Amino acid sequence: MLATLEGRQVDETNLPAGLCAAVAGNPPTCAAIDALVAQLSALHQRQKQTLKDALALNTEPCTFLADRTKPLPVIPDSVFPALKILAVHLFERTAKLKAVEQACGECIDDHYARFRHGNAPGNGNVCCVCGTEYLAQVRADENDNEQWRGPYDHLLAKDVYPLYGVDPKNLLPICNTCNSKAKLAKDLVLKDGVRRLSFSPWTERASFQEIEVVVDDANDLFPRVVVNFRSADPNRQEKLATWDDVYQIKSRVEGEFRELGAKMAEDARAPDDASFLEKLRDAGLAKAQAQRLTPFNYWRARVYAAVRGMNPRSRAALRQATAPTPQAIQDMEALFFQ
């Protein structure tokens, strides 16, 4: 885009060797590029200069998440459709060309495997956004780059911000529920046309103290898990609110523990309160240590700690609800152990 606006050839100095040749050898990609070039070339000089100035800033996409004062690049209406078509094509088709992978030295599966085994926000096969779901199931006897992989979330949606459609820092592996059910077309940067703050997942995360998990036994017939996101810092509070609004974490976690007694029975069935507390502590520690290995381990550790903090009478009622009925025991024994 800059080369077109400045009337020059593309500078390949900082690009992988052979990348431009690989792209030039693919007619569908070239057609999408030519369509964009035609629209850029047709702009008036003032429009070209304004767009060129915005592109020259080379602002990283996550900067817009953490700083609402950073102006978003304005793409002229005549250019936007062609840029969007190219961005989608680059992400869905061009990036998978063998010649492009060879020029870059890796493919998207290599990037995904490195993310899953690397430092935060990766470091495991559990979604770094919600902690409630695997990124993808792992199959035995398969190499890392042959494993199934979870979807990539465009933090800045490529349909709305096509300039960042293939920017690596705009691409975050997340679980299918976060990507295809919770987020959908929601915008981390704007809500109802108003800028808002959001976490930049490569450099930020919610702290332990900002996530409150309690067991509310005041109003309902049965105790229920309640998740709150709270921070004394207004900016952090806004980021927490945005993250939850987009990915629906609070409602998903509270929904998972709606049958709290049944969940407790999986890890902490006990005949008395002392044993119950001990099992809750041991199970909570084990879940916390394995929070990046199995979905909901982080949340189970937090819930078990909250149950330990309940008043003894309510906790006793919850413990009693974990005990199976004689008929249930008989049915399970008949099904699995005979």
Describe this structure in words.
The protein is mainly alpha-helical and 338 residues long. It has helices at 2-5, 19-24, 27-41, 45-56, 61-66, 80-92, 98-104, 108-117, 176-183, 234-247, 249-256, 260-267, 273-289, 297-308, 312-321, 326-336; strands at residues 152-154, 171-173, 190-191, 194-195, 211-216, 224-229. The strands form 3 sheets. The chain has a two-stranded antiparallel ribbon with strand order 1-2. It has a two-stranded antiparallel sheet with strand order 3-4. Strand 5 and strand 6 form a beta hairpin. Helix 3 packs antiparallel against helix 6, helix 12 packs across helix 15 and helix 13 packs antiparallel against helix 14. The chain is elongated, with a radius of gyration of 25 Å.
Strand fraction equals 5-15%
Low-confidence stretches: none
Radius of gyration (Å): 25 Å
What's the total number of strands? Answer: 6
Main β-sheet description? 2 strands, antiparallel
Helix fraction bin:
40-55%
- What's the end-to-end separation, in Å? 70 Å
Based on CA inertia axes, which overall geometry fits?
elongated
In spatial order, strands of the major sheet run 1-2
Query: Please, what is the average pLDDT?
Result: 92
Tally of individual domains = 2
**Secondary structure tally, helices:** 16
Question: Which class do the helix and strand fractions yield?
Answer: mainly alpha
Order of helices and strands: HHHHHHHHEEHEEEEHHHHHHH
